[in-house]
Design brief:
GO terms for molecular function: carbohydrate binding. The protein has 954 residues and is mainly beta. Helices cover 5% and strands 62% of the residues. Among the domains are: 29-121, Immunoglobulin-like, CATH 2.60.40; 313-552, no CATH class; 760-890, no CATH class.
Length: 954
Amino acid sequence: MFMSRQFIAMLCICIMSATVQLKAQGGKTGTIAGKLADSSSKQVLSAATISLLQAADSSLVTYVISDDKGHFSFTKVDTGAYLIQVAFQGYGLLQQPVKVTGDSMVDLGTVYLKTLENTLETVVVKSSPPLVIKKDTMEFNAGSFKTKPNAVAEDLLKKIPGITVDKSGAVTAQGETVSRILVDGKRFFGDDPKQATKNLPPDVIDKIQVFDDLSDQSKLSGFDDGNRVKTINITTKKDKRKGYFGKAVLGAGTDGTYDESMNLHRFNGTQQISLIGQVNDVNKQNFTPADMGGGGRRGGGGSITASGGGSGITTTLAAGLNYRDTWGTNTDAYGNYFYNNLKTNTSTQSHTVNQLTKDTTTTNDQDQRSVSKSQNHNINFNIETRFDSSNTLIFRPGVSFSNSTPSGSSSSMNMRTNDNTPIYSSVGNTHSQNSGYSINGASLTMMHRFKKRFRTISLNLNYSGSESKGDGYNYAVNNFYTQNRIDTINQHYFDTSRSHTFSPSLSYTEPLAKNQILELRYNYSYLSSTSVNNTYQYDDVKLGFTSFDSLFSNSFKNTTTSNRLTLTYRLQNTKYNFNIGSGVQFSDLTSINSTKGTSISNHYVNFTPSAIFTYNVSKTKNLRFFYNGSTGQPSAAQLQPIRTTSDSINFQVGNPDLKPQFTHSVRFLYHSLNPTNQRSFFATINASTIVNDIQSSIVQNSSTGSKVSTYVNLSGTYNVNGYVNWSLPLKHPKSNLNLGSNISYQQSQSLVNGESNYTRNTGLNGTIRWTTNLDNYFDMNFSSTSTYNIARNTVNTRTNANYFFQAFSAEITYFSKNGWIVASDLDYSYNGNHSPGYNASVPLWNPAIAKQFLKNHAAELRLQVFDLLNQNTAVARAVTTNTITDTRTNTLKRYFMLTFTYNLRNFAGNQNQRRMPGFFGGDRGDGNGGGNRGGWGGGNGGGGGGGRRGGGPM
């Protein structure tokens, strides 16, 4: 293991050294320096983009940003002829030739820029500046960042300074998680960022804009309420907004493996239609759980399901449709539909250390097998109408349908570690059929802006509902050795649950002064949930499930109503924003147990304070503080006094006397960006504490090993988390270095056999990412992550544990001018301090070779090997109040895959390209040539003209 890590480290060092050597030109270099100022006022201009271009073809060499004093410089510039191009918002573009000879210092002196209204001459621009800073938005020119052939938007984002993309596809910008990615300012496939990053090719992208998006309320009132969302907007090229593009992949491999996918996009002005689909048996899923919709059901005993990733083996059939258009002049509409059909086969071995009492510890070794089949349909739509500048209506309905048939079997042996005595053994199997639907927050929002600035009123009506049904079987045989007793559970259960939530709100804002407003908000919520569980035991005499089991059956209804009134004061100026609010919430909870003939009624009063403070240290530095107090109601399952089990060993019972929990949360954020070198620093501290936290109370039987868990309200729960991130663009070699570090501390309280136990977890994490590409032929990404966890319990001290995780990743791609590609994707992970047999040192190596052909390299034939060393394994550890569980799950092993990929590009004005009449309808006329929009059966376009064929990267 140590030698493996040494090898990985040495490999990375050698590659990085080679990178530096490749960039070294060996010749003499010079320096270009200057200063920017306004031609009229003579004031210096900071944060302007200065690009160094080759004089011969205007290709970008590098670029810098002017500092606070207007200075800029290019160092280590090779001898030759160049163009200096200066771009700054509100000023005309300036180009100036310059020549570097020998070790010269080229001093441009003060370069004066003219404002746009004072600029008369026309400058022919052959290339856009790589970066333009527009107030709070950083806009990157996509053409300035080279990507590998036939890449996707995700590969482009990796090249942009300050943006990182991890293995799962999650995007981080300037240290903050990007939760929203727009395309041309509009949502693309809902709120799933991966659909844009994994499906759009870089050659249709014009700009990448990074900014903090305002809330809907802020956009309506024009007054910043401090609630921001880190957002990336992908703007497409104008000549790529009329036509279609996409990609199809066909793959067949050894051992019956296959991998096929497609995406096809039809852009026609404001109308965008996209189709995506995939079918494979190699654990690939490009959809998030939100896309897939679905809902959970009571799981079968011992059944563990896994989908995607490295655990289990999943067969996937999935498809998605996205629609976006502008109806008339004032209505935007977009919607999406997702379908997925999954089948997952999972085999898991686990080793659990369980502390029954202070002096008694047991181990449980378990073997589980499961097969889970599921289907999901998820539909979402959005209609936004602006009647005029003062009135807006937004309607957002969504619904999902799901069904699943999980089944599984398990066997386990439980031993007392003190004297190595067997306590019990268990074998069992489960099977169930589940179905349901969910209305995903159908909302109607009406907003009105009065003539008086900042005076607004908005009404929001929100409804959500769900229903799920389950029909399942539990069977288990348990042999209790210490009592010389065998128990058998053989159940057939029927579950039905329904929930309905109606939550309208009304908000009114009133300006108090030029930069102050007061908001009054009223929220009402009505929640009704019912749950009916009927369980029948097998009757050996009647040979059927005819014996009603009242212990495991229950009929329950919960009704919760709440009224909340909140008053918020907001102050805004150029240096800082300040929001402070306080509200009072009255809640009534009624629980009726029809089976037991009991009812519970509780009345609660909670205060809901909030505060937001934003301080702008400078144009590129800011400090933000958030505080929020919120109430959390117990769920129906936590309130039901019903005993559930799947193996007659582990029981769960609800508590109808639970109180709502109240959470205090604070968050500090600091962000700093140096426009001159584009280096950014981000730091955040999050802390929270929970009053009346809903936690578990566990009672264990030391002689039988059985466990009964219920829920109780406890205090003493809090967590603190600190995170820092540095983004460091490097010039030599041209690359991006990203450093991140995280430290966390969590404490929670629980009851173990009536004794209070505190669980304390400390986590340390560090991440390094380095991304570069060299001379348009090499594309490289390296990362390293180290995690160290410390788990401590005050009562169950024998479950205290320290464990370590280390991961390395190296992605290297070489592509030649004639279309040959050689790629290597190497991941190495190490799990330390686990139970014997569960420590895993896993090198996962996926090499590939490919050849691109046809015009613009539109086609590709690729041979790839997954897990060449045949070492793939999935190991995990879970720590709870009184247990430590190590698991090992089956994974895909080595296979070879041959894939054929075809990239389609066809845009308006490409007369020499073959068209696809009828697909998605004809062109929408541009107003000059008429044309019919056409339906699914076809139609003819008018207008056209301009543009050219979009083949490879622009």
